[in-house]
Amino acid sequence: MAIRRFRTQRLWHNTLIMVWAIPFLILPGIIVGASSGRFLLFQVMLGVALLGVLLAARRDSRKTATYQVDDDKLVLSTAETTREVRVSDILDASLLDRVGARAYLKEFTADPASRDEFMRYCTVDIGFSTFTLGAARRLIDRLPSAKGDLLLIRLRGGGVILLSPLHAQDLVDTLGRRKLQV
After folding, report:
1. DSSP helix/strand/coil, 145
2. Distance of CA 125 to CAs 88, 92, 105, 132, Å?
3. Closest CA to 4 of 171, 176, 145
4. Alpha helices in the chain (DSSP H)
5. Is 123 strand, coil or helix?
6. Do 114 and 120 form a contact (C-beta atoms < 8 A)?
7. Which of 35, 90, 148, 171 is a plausible cystine mate for 95, CB 3.0–4.6 Å?
8. Do 116 and 140 meet the contact criterion of CB atoms below 8 Å apart?
9. Angle formed by the axes of helices 13-36 and 40-61, to 10°?
């Protein structure tokens, strides 16, 4: 069978929140500047807004990964590492949303090393490293695109991997078909 490649999701929630916050950051500077003739507050707030947008964009774009399914293996790659998982070692591949992923992470991974291993190939922030500090997490979790957009893979050795393919159901179907062929 042919190699099937899957793109990962790229979500820009931190950047969008910062872009929406720009008017609220800059408007007080404009008002104070217009009434007093001193635009120092405007310049400071503009600098803070630009810095916030740059940091948010960097944070949203920092993680990249690729997933490909070969005849008998799933190859997971990031800039730092590549991991091959035999299809026969996959016990279960199930769709998961961000709320479920956070709950699973809190319940089953206590130390940071196992948390990093769980999240190594996931390019979507599930709510542990956002700039919003939880303020917009509930809103993001309720988006229609956030339902079932993650993939939880359980392995024979007891390992678990969280993936974030663009089309999660296609990856589940492909893994299921390859598992039946092996």
Report:
1. helix
2. 29, 23, 13, 12
3. 171
4. 13-36, 40-61, 98-108, 112-119, 137-141, 168-181
5. coil
6. no
7. 148
8. no
9. 180
What is the end-to-end Cα distance of the chain in Å, rounded? Answer: 12
pLDDT tens, 87-125? Answer: 999 998 888 887 788 888 878 766 777 777 787 888 877
**Greatest CA separation for the chain:** 75
How are beta strands 82-86 and 4-6 bridged, if at all? Answer: unpaired
In one-letter notation, the amino acid at residue 47 is G
37: its two tokens: 């003739």
pTM comes to: 0.71
Radius of gyration in angstroms for the set of CA atoms belonging to the chain, rounded to a whole number = 21
Between CA 125 and CA 98 the distance in angstroms is 8
- pLDDT band at residue 139, thresholds of 50, 70 and 90? low
The whole-angstrom separation of Cα 5 and Cα 7 is 7
Residues in the chain: 182
Two structure tokens written together for 31: 């008002």
